[in-house]
Write a structure and sequence with these properties.
The protein is globular, with a radius of gyration of 17 Å. By secondary structure, the protein is an alpha+beta fold. It contains seven helices and six strands. Helix 1 (about 15-40) runs antiparallel to helix 2, helix 2 packs across helix 3 and helix 3 (about 90-100) packs across helix 4 (about 105-110). The strands form two sheets. It has a four-stranded antiparallel beta sheet with strand order 2-1-6-5. Strands 3-4 form a two-stranded antiparallel ribbon.
Length: about 190
Amino acid sequence: MGVDFTCDTKTFGCSYSGWHYFRNLIIGATLAYLDDFLSKQKYEEDTYEFSAMNNLKKGVASIRSTAVKISSENKTIFGMDLGKRPVEECLLKALAIEINSNSWFGELLIEYGLGGIWALCNKSDCEGFYSVGNAYDICDLFSLIRDFTLENNFDIDAPENIIYRSIHQIERVFQESLKKKRIVSIF
């Protein structure tokens, strides 16, 4: 069983666990991009930009601390102990908590071209769709964070660069959506 994305002739598919892993690593890359972006910003105090940057920093810190908290909790399913989860596996839930708790954080992500992270992560794993607008936001997101998914700069084909290569594969589906003005179906 897995998840498949289709737009006209372009498709991308992976297992459910692979999709969960992909989304969590994309969130991690987005947070790394934000760390880099925020470290380079210089604004005078008492300006909108200064306030926005501080709010973005607070949102990023909150996502990380929530992920650590979720990671430390023991989880069970059907009575089986799943134990603790690595922090990287908890980013998806932490992002959802942050955006649902603080709508301003989602608005700031959109303002700075990162709204695609919510569009990418806040969809059903089956029987859903991404709109053309979602595809646009996701392609923007990928263009900003792509380099932050690269773990081995010397060998693009190295196993640790799976997310970097996967972005190119799934991005083709979203680009097809933009080109043909059609939704991306999730099966």
